[in-house]
Amino acid sequence: MYYCQQCDKEFITYNGFNMHMEHSSAHQDLDYECEFCDRDFGTEQARHQHYVAAYGHHYCGDCRRTFNSEHSLTQHMRSRTHVGTSISCPFCKGNYATASGLTIHLESGTCSSGLNRQKINTMMRQMDKNNVITKPMITMPGYENASNMVATEHAWNGDGYECYLCHREFDRLSGLNNHMRSPVHEQKIYQCPGRGCGREYKALSGLVQHVESESCGVMRFGQVQAGARNGIEPFVGRMISYR
């Protein structure tokens, strides 16, 4: 029998007694504080065990990291750190952790397929005949956003090259055209098909990230990723058929 006189506790085994001496706050300087419930612990390991076991603590036991919210923890658990890069681009074979990562890659215009944001938008409109995830066009085809326009020397106002939409000035014409090609002035052409949601997005990748969050119940995260292993069309088609 092993006895702790300070705590007036008995232990059948030396291992139990030793664990008590190592982890009991009565025998430690309490230098390790829980970020969520303000409890103090004598060792980092004791705090780690508390984080793992405690309900409502946003903690990744594998990485020993805390997060500000359940959403942040969920995003971390769905990152390449934990899910790897199991989704391959069907064109250039680049590897990505999520369907939204693949979509961002294709929208960027860097893929060998030649796809970019504008071409994907056109593809989605062709797939979505009933405007489930795309909004009806309110302008002429090809002019639904500023990225189809090219600024010329006429944009020089005497001080800089001026964007006629937001009046921001640029030192170089190339800078203005890069600004025009960015999503900053695009319409929000995508909409969440979830009932009662109404969230709108400028790019397909934004909608995909929203669906991956499972906040509207359109698809489960795993279903989106499974569909993305065959390209973006399968899971987009499932979103379109949601209603």
Your description of this structure?
The chain is an alpha+beta fold and about 240 residues long. It has a domain at about 115-145 and about 185-240. It is built from ten helices and twelve strands. It has helices spanning about 15-25, 45-55, 70-75, 80-85, 100-105, 115-125, 175-180, 205-210, 220-230, 230-240, and strands spanning about 1-5, 10, 30-35, 40, 60, 65, 85-90, 95, 160, 170, 190, 200. A two-stranded antiparallel sheet has the order 1-2. α5 (about 100-105) packs antiparallel against α8 (about 205-210) and α9 (about 220-230) crosses α10 (about 230-240). The termini are far apart. The model has no long low-confidence stretch (mean pLDDT about 85).
State the separation between the terminal residues, measured CA to CA: 68 Å
Shape: elongated
Strand order of the largest sheet: 1-2
- Report the mean per-residue pLDDT as an integer: 86
Order of helices and strands: EEHEEHEEHHEEHHEEHEEHHH
What fraction of the residues are assigned to beta strands by DSSP? 5-15%
Strands, count = 12
Could you describe the largest sheet, including whether it forms a barrel?
2 strands, antiparallel
**What is the overall number of helices?**
10
Poorly predicted parts:
none
- As a whole number of angstroms, the C-alpha radius of gyration is 27 Å
Q: Fraction of residues in helices? A: 25-40%
Backbone structural class: alpha+beta
GO molecular function: zinc ion binding
InterPro entries: Znf_C2H2_jaz, Znf_C2H2_sf, Znf_C2H2_type
Domain C2H2-type: 2-27, 58-87, 161-185
Keywords: Metal-binding, Repeat, Zinc, Zinc-finger
